[in-house]
């Protein structure tokens, strides 16, 4: 009851903590509900098979999702025959996929919607009209395209456009041709689906299939029920992975910043309540009882805030999931699954976070001496302790050390060191602010002291006297400006540097990129005469864990474009990072698995610098085409005498500058990164805004006595409000200046490191709109949180000139 009464009476002091806990628990609840909702579901075209067998997956690198390497042709045939003879199995069907697309439709890179007709038995849908494909030019396709049986259609494939006759229409997605035609267009087999006899147990068949797979050289993984969603398109898996990273970062950031805000709020509150705690000690309260009082207040705020936050998080989770789907951070068809225990766990977590944040303040309150009740002065005589000096200097030194390390780090550790620089300097300066306030404010406001009038003098002296109040306002502004500006500037700088590096590596003025298709077909590049300058993209598998590598088949134009000899017959070019990871050296041989499941032993002809080409491996074009019939060219560079206009018309491609292609090649990934960045910046700014508003609201509410003295001294209401506003403006300006002091060293260190690692000129890109936005937001919120309460106090008894001191 005591804690609830105290919280109710001093609600401005606890409002920031309450809002922070509620918002943090809402984010954690919402994130957990979305993260625990499972995968994107079983693909429609495979959902009709109760048991699916997938080729064994190779190593997956975080953030990169590739299909498993296919079985070797002999292994796939042997395994399909074994599975076909299992009791209860009607048919074991090998799924072969290839690139197929109707003109005017859209497909993403790597998507392969063409299949053999036998694979239609694995789908959850069937023929709507017509018959199955029987001749080589027959095709069955989704009826949503508007075609009828007997129509002649043009279908784009990797070797060029082909004319087909629509033999039937389907109730689901896909292009289905005869198995013979599919075998010529597709690569290897990765999935074998089992259709069962009526009444057969899927679990019993799956158990028998596992034994059959174990006895086969190629091995594999048997999937049933919900586990079949592992066969969802890799783009969906990557989308869900990116979404999970966003949600995890949001939840972690929420928990961390909530502790920070609760800790700051209670620390500031304890500092203002020294006389109150001193009086409690005079009347006999023990340090343990004082500590228990502060913890009880924190628990009350935590429980109330967590209860509200869990309810809000549960209510908005479905809407947020829809927004993530629209933004491309969750796959299409994603549905939220409710779990009752998540909000309950979030309430416990929120209460615990509030107690953790208030623990240090509670210990400080317990150390207040009884004589503190006798103090009347509001001047902070000793704002810095030895422990705070040591912690501040240590954090600052660590930040500077990270800055030095960033200048010579590789690309993988550069971002982490840059973040370490910002974190260390921010934490160090935040701890040292009380020591910096008086000299810095004195230097910055010296022009104000020369101006006539008492307002400027009051602003200057109030800030220097109330060091703790000034520091509590400056610290969140410092954090807001630092992280908002550093995160956005880092992303823009690295994106610009990466684009410049890729553009500098190609000796061409323009590029011809696909328009409306995942790539350029063989027929199109041959017709335009740019096959020798086209990069034929594929995926190969190898190394210690059969890892997937991005690879390109190149022609004779590679040497002219990149200034490197083309890979010789039986040879491969590899990047430095891949060679180091797998122990490959120039002149040594390695075995690679291709898209048709076949293996070849190739000699490492040369090791390329990372970033020299936008692929991990470079092969001869004929090798890629022989093993991957569905491979498409990612880009072609027109360096022949034939006009670019003729090439563009023949290819049906879009002409762009090399710089534009380099930036657009990862446009979707960059878009998701920017969404991720903006969400983190918005959360950081939102939380620190809560801290700014809470601190100023609390400080102003406790300044009734100061305002009374000013009014008794003859100051008008306008002069008092201008004084309060001036203090806020100066505190925000100081926080912004210190934030830029942190950002510039961190950004310059990263720029130096990028120059060293990329070998191209790199300039720092400071996101000035974000600087202005962060500072303006803090200033507007700070003025509202300080001037409005002060105005309310002035309209009350405290603002009357004749009010007594009491």
From TrEMBL:
Pfam families: FtsX (PF02687). It comes from the Bacteria. Residues 250-368, 680-796 form the ABC3 transporter permease C-terminal domain. It comes from Streptomyces oryzae. Keywords: Cell membrane, Membrane, Transmembrane, Transmembrane helix. It is a multi-pass membrane protein. The chain crosses the membrane at residues 12-36, 246-271, 298-320, 340-362, 389-409, 415-437, 470-491, 672-699, 720-748, 768-794. The keyword Translocase does not apply. It is found in: Cell membrane. Belongs to the ABC-4 integral membrane protein family. The keyword Transmembrane helix applies. This is ABC transporter permease.
């Amino acid at each position: 009851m005591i804690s609830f009464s105290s919280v109710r009476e001093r609600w401005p002091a606890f409002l920031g903590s309450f809002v922070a806990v509620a918002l943090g628990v809402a984010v954690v609840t919402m994130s957990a509900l979305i993260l625990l909702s499972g995968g994107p579901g079983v693909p429609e075209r495979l959902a009709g098979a109760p048991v699916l067998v997938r080729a064994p997956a190779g190593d997956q690198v975080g953030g990169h999702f590739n299909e498993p390497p296919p079985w070797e042709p002999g292994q796939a045939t042997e395994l399909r025959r074994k599975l076909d003879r299992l009791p209860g199995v009607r048919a074991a069907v090998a799924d072969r996929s290839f690139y197929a697309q109707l003109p005017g439709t859209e497909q993403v890179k790597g998507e392969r919607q063409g299949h053999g007709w036998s694979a239609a038995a694995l789908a959850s849908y069937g023929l709507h009209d017509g018959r199955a494909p029987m001749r080589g030019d027959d095709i069955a396709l989704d009826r949503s395209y508007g075609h009828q049986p007997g129509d002649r259609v043009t279908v784009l494939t990797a070797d060029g456009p082909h004319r087909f006759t629509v033999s039937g229409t389907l109730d689901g997605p896909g292009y289905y041709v005869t198995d013979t035609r599919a075998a010529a267009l597709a690569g290897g087999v990765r999935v074998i689906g089992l259709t069962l006899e009526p009444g057969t147990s899927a679990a019993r068949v799956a158990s028998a299939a596992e034994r059959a797979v174990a006895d086969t050289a190629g091995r594999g993984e048997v999937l049933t029920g919900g586990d079949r969603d592992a066969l969802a398109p890799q783009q969906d898996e990557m989308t869900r992975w990116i979404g999970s990273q966003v949600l995890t970062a949001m939840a972690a950031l929420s928990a961390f910043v909530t502790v920070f805000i609760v800790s700051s709020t209670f620390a500031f509150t304890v500092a203002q309540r020294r006389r109150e705690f001193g009086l409690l000690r005079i009347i006999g309260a023990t340090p343990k009882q004082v500590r228990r009082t502060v913890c009880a207040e924190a628990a009350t705020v935590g429980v109330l805030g967590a209860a509200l936050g869990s309810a809000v998080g549960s209510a908005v989770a479905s809407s947020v999931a829809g927004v993530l789907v629209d933004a491309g951070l969750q796959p299409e068809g994603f549905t939220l699954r409710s779990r009752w225990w998540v909000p309950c766990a979030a309430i416990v977590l929120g209460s615990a976070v509030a107690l953790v944040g208030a623990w240090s303040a509670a210990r400080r309150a317990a150390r207040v001496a009884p004589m503190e009740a006798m103090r009347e002065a509001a001047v902070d005589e000793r704002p810095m302790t030895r422990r705070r000096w040591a912690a501040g200097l240590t954090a600052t030194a660590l930040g500077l050390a990270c800055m030095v390390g960033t200048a010579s780090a590789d690309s993988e550790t550069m971002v982490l060191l840059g973040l370490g620089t910002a974190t260390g300097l921010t934490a160090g300066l935040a701890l040292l602010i009380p020591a910096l306030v008086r000299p810095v404010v004195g230097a910055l406001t010296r022009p104000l002291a020369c101006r006539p009038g008492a307002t400027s003098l009051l602003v200057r002296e109030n800030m220097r006297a109330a060091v703790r109040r000034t520091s509590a306002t400056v610290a969140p502004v410092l954090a807001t400006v630092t992280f908002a500006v550093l995160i956005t500037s880092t992303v823009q700088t690295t994106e610009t540097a990466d684009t410049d590096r890729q553009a500098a590596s190609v000796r061409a003025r323009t590029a011809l990129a696909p328009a409306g298709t995942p790539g350029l077909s063989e027929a199109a590049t041959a017709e335009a005469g740019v096959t020798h300058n086209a990069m034929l993209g594929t995926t190969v598998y190898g190394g210690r864990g059969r890892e997937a590598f991005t690879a390109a088949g190149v022609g004779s134009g590679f040497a002219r474009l990149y200034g490197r000899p083309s890979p010789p017959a039986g040879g491969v070019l590899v990047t430095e990072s891949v060679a180091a990871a797998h122990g490959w050296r120039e002149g040594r041989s390695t075995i690679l698995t291709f898209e048709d499941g076949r293996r070849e032993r190739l000699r490492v002809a040369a090791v390329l610098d990372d970033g020299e080409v936008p692929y991990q491996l470079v092969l001869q074009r004929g090798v890629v085409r022989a093993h991957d019939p569905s491979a498409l060219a990612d880009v072609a560079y027109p360096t022949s005498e034939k006009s670019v206009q003729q090439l563009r018309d023949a290819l049906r491609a879009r002409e762009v500058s090399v710089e534009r292609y380099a930036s657009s090649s990862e446009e979707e990934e960059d878009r998701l990164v920017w969404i991720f960045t903006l969400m983190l910046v918005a959360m950081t700014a939102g939380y620190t805004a809560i801290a700014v508003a809470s601190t100023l609201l609390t400080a102003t509410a406790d300044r009734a006595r100061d305002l009374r003295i000013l009014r008794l001294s003859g100051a008008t209401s306008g002069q008092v409000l201008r004084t309060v506003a001036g203090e806020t403006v100066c505190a925000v300006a100081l926080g912004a200046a210190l934030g830029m002091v942190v950002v510039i060293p961190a950004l310059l260190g990263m720029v130096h490191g990028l120059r060293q690692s990329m070998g191209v000129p790199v300039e720092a890109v400071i996101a000035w709109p974000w600087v202005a936005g962060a500072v303006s937001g803090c200033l507007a919120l700070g003025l509202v949180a300080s001037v409005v309460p002060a105005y309310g106090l002035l309209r009350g008894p405290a603002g009357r000139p004749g009010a007594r001191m009491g």
